[in-house]
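Problem 12. The chain below contains 176 residues. Write out its predicted structure in token notation.
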Amino acid sequence: MSEGSSGSRDSRSGEKPVRPDVSEGARAGRTGGGARSGPAGPGPAEGEDTYSLYRRGLDLLGRGSAAAAAQVLARAAAAEPDSRSILEALGRAQFDTRHYEAAAGSFRRIVEASPSDDYAQFGLGLALARSGNHGAAAEHLALAAAMRPDLRHYTEALRSVRATLRARAIAESGQA
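Solution.
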């Protein structure tokens, strides 16, 4: 994601490690529902496990191929719909391909499962802002900034969204 975010963040360096919560079943090639399909299908192809899809998606995302990463990570998410790591990577890929509503949906799923995930709150806030929902964006960015006041890009994003809201309020009051 942009806005000071080339990926996940870490408390010391501004980079946060990706949480490898892909289940052991996924690493072993078991996808929960047991559904297997071809490369264009919703789950992993024969001989390809969810963890491999996840790693390949991260590699593609890291090399700047967000559209390809989004396709691969969508297949991984279909196989492991509750994996926070997969959803985070998918949300980042969707954001980078300007599919902001889809990115918001991915980050929202993480926030619903773990409201204290500051990066998911940040991602959801940015995606909502880019989708035009600045009011909701401000709420999520404020939560992220409150959880991690040491991360300047969180507070800068919040400041920007609040400035947009103020400017819109002034414009509306001037037209009324």
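Discussion. The chain has two domains: 9-97, 99-176. Students who got a different answer should revisit the alignment rule from Section 12.3.
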